[in-house]
Design a protein that fits this description.
Strand content: under 5%
Distance between the termini: 54 Å
Largest sheet: none
Order of helices and strands: HHHH
Organism: Streptomyces doudnae
Pfam families: NikA-like
Helix content: 55-70%
Protein name: Plasmid mobilization relaxosome protein MobC
Radius of gyration: 27 Å
Number of strands: 0
Length: 142
């Protein structure tokens, strides 16, 4: 009997792509660890590309390493973390300024010029807004 042909209504099973093999065994390994959400993302991306998760992770890391700018693959995430750290530092500096202002008010009883106070409060608002934006970006990416 001949091989049966599948009908157009029968779903076709996707062909799994395998990572290209070296002629000799690869002896160096990394063992990345993922939380449940990260692992699900990797498995989903691997399935969409028709690869096993291990081969997908290997190909992605090699593609990033071989690119003209290997840092580009993680640059967006690192930029967000740097912005978050910078915003946190700004808030710490401004908080220190507010503490100094409060100390002077209690000691001297004299208010600084209203424009100075408004400028300081504007900086606080701007820093909080920047921090909120970055936190939202990081939360969306996770």
């Amino acid at each position: 009997m001949g091989a049966s042909k599948s009908s157009p209504s029968t779903p076709q099973k996707p062909v799994q792509r395998r990572r290209l093999r070296d002629k000799q065994f690869r002896k160096h390994r990394f063992h990345p660890r993922y939380n449940d959400d990260e692992f699900a993302l990797v498995k989903q991306a691997a399935a969409l590309s028709g690869m096993a998760p291990g081969g997908y992770v290997a190909e992605c890391s090699l593609a990033a390493a071989r690119s003209a700018d290997p840092t580009a693959a993680v640059a967006d995430y690192r930029a967000m973390i740097k912005a978050l750290m910078a915003a946190n530092g700004k808030l710490g500096q401004i908080g220190n300024n507010l503490n100094q202002l409060t100390w002077h008010l209690h000691k001297d009883g004299a208010w600084p010029h209203p424009a100075t106070v408004q400028q300081l409060l504007d900086r606080v608002d701007a820093s909080v807004a920047e921090l909120d934006t970055v936190i939202a970006q990081v939360a969306e990416g996770r």
